[in-house]
Specification:
By secondary structure, the chain is an alpha+beta fold. Strand 29 (about 815-820) and strand 30 (about 825) form a beta hairpin. InterPro entries: GAF, GAF-like_dom_sf, HATPase_C_sf, HATPase_dom.
Length: about 950
């Protein structure tokens, strides 16, 4: 065969016309009919303005239904036009003939269209009636922007055909609507008659039979069945049939095996449960699923109409109207069957009203029992057992499970299990919920029912365990509404089962009470743990303080192990510089846990110790994560876990050991207990640190006492010998030679001063310092200090320069310059700087600073001493050098915090120790000492001292000592 020829334009128009006509005939919706017609007119005819309206013969108006405009404005298309005699619209409606207008803008007989015509420039216009025989159904207005544009020939014929067909379809639709209204009247009368029959009958089965008979008379199906829902087994059985044969027995007797399960009904069951009318035919259904073929085959019919019988949101059954031939169910059929089902829903509850009231009362009493259990302090088994058994009986269930989420192990655990009829407890360890199930339970506001577990995807990860234990249906509730599903109530049944709304409401109320009970038990357990920990915290410091140092760690480890209730606790400890760690045993009370003797533990090679030292807090390892090197000396089972934590006082301090705790992997270590363990371990670290510091202080105090006693006794002996020598010199008398006489007097004077100065030290400073108050010029003070370091400076070839010893009376007139020889050139009218305080101690401080500067300075370099007055009360003496000093030592000296000289290696030995002593002395004298580096890398020792008043009368010490030295220094007054 050849390729089909492309249709010519005329054929295309005929095909398009046939297609629109077929569409109009197949459509029932009036709005779709109008939209389809307008679309065809827009596509086939060149008109810029189209308006279609339907005629209301009662109000004498034409109501706009839609159309098109050049700019898309729709406000004109929905307007209503009132028929006025003499207008063109009225002429078209009354005469049922089309009218053509050459220019709509100038047509006085169409005043209602003048605004539209002027806005869109509408001229050539056709107005056609939509009619069927002598009945006008509406009007179509077609407007063009060309003058006098009218349709002729084939185009006019097509337009009339389409409008004519639209009139036929609209007339049929109108008649059908009137017929349905009449049918509704008939349906109402039949339902009222059925209601009267139901009211006069007493037995339920007779009421069901009356309903079946009424449906048969109204609908005339092949068969009418009333299926009843059996919750035990989750299936429907035919309780009443139009053949007047009961498949089954009386209501309380054993049911017949003939029936259909809820799973077989599938989506039909879920639609009926939410009170939806369902119809099925071989060609389609009211549901979106495609189960009709399978279900119709199962029931042996070709068409089905089902209406639910519901009471208190519970599906009691449904009316099934069935035909053996294909049938399109009319609206009257649907309305009557649905109404009959509604009437049965109203009259059925009266049969079991007393039973329902009794159930409500029993549910209320059971709820009160669970509410009263909230305040009991017994364990869950004692509290819940009697209530759980009664709840299972009320719900006709077999097992009661209360689950709690274990965050540490990331699983749910059964904290209570109740059963009926001497059934055995089963082991159930549900895994965490999927995200979908988690959200489902968190947002749930009532009990969630799974009537047939193997056919439901909810809680899918739990299915294997539940099915293996014989569970086929269940109710599950989040015991804390709106919160994370951490406490769950699960009611199970061994067969497919459905629960009533009343039962699900009871389960939900009980679950909320259980949520409060479990939360109270959690709080009580936390409170008990807190009390236990609080008591331990009271005893723990006494343990550390009062215990003997040899076994303190062991006793502390036992108390730490009690917190986590673990069978193994040890400490790996070592001293600084040691390669091997030794084990201090605390608790080892399980043969599966232990330490292998005689296996060396290397601190720097063991990965477990390395990881513990690398973390500031604890680290937990599973047994399979423990390194092989560690397993050589540590014995733990395969399902064990290990906690390690370094013993250190601060994150930056040197660790003194590692605490190791071990237990089985299933052991639950709560966050509270872990925090308490961390605190106890930290306290043990502090005890070790303080113990070492105390021991160090004790040792150092003993050494210092010995040293002080020895030096003081030697000082006393020197004083005694000096006094003896001085006495002997005096006894010899003054030499006769004048030169020797002057020299003799000078030496005698110096020896006398030395002897007198030792007297104060011996009497007042045997075990503590004594601060005196003297004044001395800075020049004399520095001169004495420089003389003391003179020999060392000459050895190092150092040049010591002094600057600014005197200050002018006017601060602005203070020209300062320093010669290379170290001599200070001062301005006229200046006054010397002087300081006040314990001059001997100040001199020793300056000597220490100057000696340190000379010691660290390069050979052949220089050391500068700068003096200046800061204000009326303070003066500054700064020593600068180009030496090298440890930056860490400078940082420690300049910190404003407390300086731990026992732990710092920089401050517990010279020169840091000497600097720290100098700082403390100057602080006691009301001054400051700072040592730092400036940007050009010079080291500055800045000493701030009290300034003596301007009018001080000489100096109590400086004048005396200053005259005893020769002018051999670079000072010039």
């Amino acid at each position: 065969m050849g390729q089909p020829k492309k249709p010519i334009a005329a054929e295309q128009q005929i095909l398009s016309l046939g297609k629109i006509l077929q569409t109009l005939r197949d459509e029932d919706d009036v709005q779709v009919l109008i939209t389809t017609t307008i679309g065809y007119l827009k596509k086939q005819f060149d008109y810029q303005f189209i308006w279609l309206g339907l005629y209301d013969s009662v109000s004498k108006k034409i109501h706009g239904q839609g159309g098109i405009t050049p700019d898309g404005e729709t406000s004109y298309l929905k307007r209503s036009v009132l028929l006025n005699p003499g207008n063109l619209i009225c002429q078209v409606v009354t005469e049922l003939c089309p009218v053509g207008v050459a220019n709509l803008r100038g047509e006085v007989r169409a005043p209602e269209w003048q605004e539209v015509a002027a806005k869109y420039n509408i001229q050539g216009t056709i107005i056609l009636p939509i009619r069927y025989k002598d009945n006008c159904l509406g009007v179509v207005l077609l407007g063009s922007q060309r003058w006098g544009y009218l349709l002729t020939g084939d185009a006019r014929a097509k337009l009339l055909i389409v409008i004519g067909e639209l009139g036929v379809v609209l007339d049929q639709n109108q008649k059908q609507r009137h017929s349905q209204e009449n049918s509704n009247n008939s349906t109402t009368e039949s339902l009222l008659e059925l209601l009267e029959n139901l009211r006069s009958l007493t037995l339920l089965d007779k009421k069901l039979a009356a309903a079946v008979e009424a449906i048969d008379q109204f609908v005339s199906p092949s068969r009418t069945n009333i299926y009843w829902f059996e919750r035990e087994g989750n299936y429907f059985w035919s309780r009443m049939s139009s053949q007047l044969v009961k498949i089954g027995r009386e209501w309380n007797d054993q049911r017949s095996s003939v029936g259909i399960t809820a799973h077989e009904l599938s989506d039909v069951y879920y639609a009926l449960a939410v009170n939806q009318l369902v119809w099925l035919t071989e060609s389609g259904s009211s549901l979106k699923s495609h189960i009709q073929d399978k279900l119709l085959q199962r029931l042996g019919v070709r068409s089905l109409l089902a209406a639910p019988i519901i009471w208190q949101k519970d599906l009691l059954g449904f009316i099934s109207v069935e035909t053996s031939e294909p049938r399109i169910w009319s609206q009257a059929d649907k309305s009557f069957v649905q109404g009959a089902a509604g009437l049965l829903s109203l009259v059925i509850p009266t049969e079991n009203l007393e039973n329902t009231i009794g159930q409500i009362q029993q549910n209320h009493q059971l709820t009160n029992k669970f509410s009263q259990a909230i305040h009991k302090k017994q364990d869950l088994q004692q509290i819940l057992h009697p209530c759980a058994v009664e709840l299972l009986e009320r719900l006709a269930a077999t097992r009661f499970l209360l689950l709690e989420y274990d965050q540490g192990r990331d699983i749910y655990q059964v904290i209570y299990q109740g059963v009926l009829h001497n059934r055995r407890f089963f082991k159930f360890t549900p895994t965490p919920l999927s995200e979908m199930d988690f959200n489902l339970l968190q947002n749930a506001k009532d009990a969630i029912e799974i009537a047939t577990l193997e056919h439901d995807l909810r809680l899918f990860s739990w299915h294997p365990q539940l099915l293996d234990n014989g569970v086929r249906s269940l109710l599950i509730c989040n015991c804390i509404q709106g919160d994370k599903p951490e406490v769950l109530l699960v009611i199970t049944h061994e067969s497919s089962h459905s629960w009533t709304t009343l039962q699900k409401e009871l389960c939900w109320v009980v679950s909320q009470c259980l949520g409060v009970i479990v939360r109270n038990h959690q709080l009580n357990a936390i409170s008990e743990e807190q009390q236990k920990i609080a008591q331990l915290f009271k005893e723990y410091p006494n343990t550390l303080i009062k215990s003997e140092s040899e076994n303190t760690e062991s006793i502390a480890l036992k108390q730490i192990a009690d917190v986590l209730e673990c069978p193994l606790s040890i400490v790996l400890t070592w001293n600084l510089g040691e390669e091997r760690a030794k084990v201090i045993r605390g608790v080892i009370n399980n043969h599966h846990f232990g330490i292998v003797a005689d296996v060396p533990i290397f601190v720097e090679r063991d990965i477990l110790i390395e990881l513990a030292l690398a973390h500031s807090s604890y680290v937990i390892f599973k047994a399979y994560d423990v390194p092989p090197e560690t397993k050589k000396w540590l014995t733990i089972p395969e399902n064990g876990q290990v906690l390690v934590m370094a013993l250190r006082t601060t994150d930056d301090s040197q660790p003194t050991g590692v605490v190791l705790l071990a237990d089985y992997e299933g052991a639950y270590w709560s966050e509270l207990n872990l925090n308490a363990t961390v605190t106890l371990i930290s306290q043990l670290a502090w005890w070790q640190s303080q113990n070492k510091i105390t021991q160090r202080l004790t040792d150092k105090t003993e050494v210092l006492r010995d040293l002080n006693w020895y030096k003081h006794r030697r000082l006393e002996e020197i004083h005694r010998m000096s006094a003896s020598v001085l006495t002997q010199i005096r006894d010899l008398g003054i030499p006769s030679n004048e030169l020797k006489q002057m020299r003799y007097k000078l030496l005698l004077r110096q020896l006398n001063y030395i002897t007198n100065s030792m007297t104060g030290v011996i009497k007042q400073e045997q075990w503590q310092l004594h601060l005196s108050w003297e004044t001395m010029s800075v020049a004399s003070l520095l001169k004495r200090t420089i003389e003391r370091v003179d020999n060392f400076a000459k050895q190092q070839q150092l040049w010591i320069g002094v600057h600014g010893l005197t200050q002018p009376t006017e601060e602005a007139e203070s020209p300062k310059s320093t010669s290379l020889s170290g001599e200070l050139i001062t301005a006229a009218g200046s006054f010397p700087l002087a300081t006040a305080g314990d001059i001997v101690k100040i001199e020793l401080v300056i000597y220490e600073l100057l000696l340190s500067a000379c010691t660290r300075s390069p050979i052949g370099d220089r050391v500068d001493i700068w003096c200046q007055r800061l204000d009326e009360t303070l003066l500054e003496v700064s020593i600068t050098d180009n030496g090298t000093i440890d930056p860490q030592l400078l940082a420690l000296l300049n910190e404003n915090t407390w300086k731990d000289v026992l732990t710092s290696t920089h401050l517990n030995q010279p020169p840091g120790l000497h600097f720290l002593i100098c700082q403390n002395l100057i602080k006691q004298l009301g001054g400051q000492l700072q040592i730092y580096q400036v940007p050009d890398n010079r080291v500055v020792s800045r000493l701030i001292l009290p300034l003596a008043p301007h009018n001080f009368e000489g100096n109590t010490l400086g004048n005396t000592l200053g005259n005893t030295f020769g002018n051999t220094s670079p000072f010039s007054q």
